[in-house]
Amino acid sequence: MAEVIINLAAVLAGIAFLLVLWRFIKGPSPVDRIIAFDGLTIVSITGILFAALAEGRGIYLDVALVYALLSFLGVIVVARFLERGF
Amino acid sequence: MAAALDIIGALLLLGGTTFLLLAGLGLVRMPDAYNRIQAGTKATTLGTLLSLAGVAFLHPDWILKLLLIGVFLLFTNPLSSQVLARAAHRSGAEKSPKTRVDRLTEDLGERP
Description:
Chain A is 88% helix and 0% strand. The relative contact order of chain A is 0.12. Chain A is built from three helices and no strands. Chain A has one domain. By secondary structure, chain B is mostly helical. Chain B has one domain (2-92). Chain B is 80% helix and 0% strand. Chain B has four helices and no strands. Chain B has helices at 2-29, 33-58, 63-90, 103-110. In chain B, helix 2 (33-58) packs antiparallel against helix 3. The model of chain B has no long low-confidence stretch (mean pLDDT 88). At the A-B interface, helix 1, helix 2 and helix 3 of A face helix 1, helix 2 and helix 3 of B.
């Protein structure tokens, strides 16, 4: 029962990733793309959670933490770059 | 007892990914960059936190790392949302025609 619900949740997360990826590819302006990139990294953290659940290994959560840190820094850097102009 | 905890954790995971799905839908459907920031950062924060809570119910021995990730996300997500909104405004992202209020332009306009 619980496994079925977890699989359904993983499918929903995959659909969410595809929707945000569509905005990342289509996004008319660079700001739209960086917003979609921020969304992609946050959805990916949930993806890493599902990987940790599937493998049953808690060490993957450390990967998720470092990934959150690096993606946050990346978003800040690109946003500052957009502010200063091209 | 353990089975009940598993069910609760799985339902929390399902709720969290539902919010992620709604955030993705908002990113696709919203008309301009500012509305997309609203959908793309608020809803994903709630969705990720619910997913973290669900995994904490499924694996209680991981709770410390999950708490660390949750607190970190609570600190960084509003910050990146604010920086993105400021970058959008300064780089002149176009507003939806239905925009009625733009306080930042009014404030900048009053400055000499």
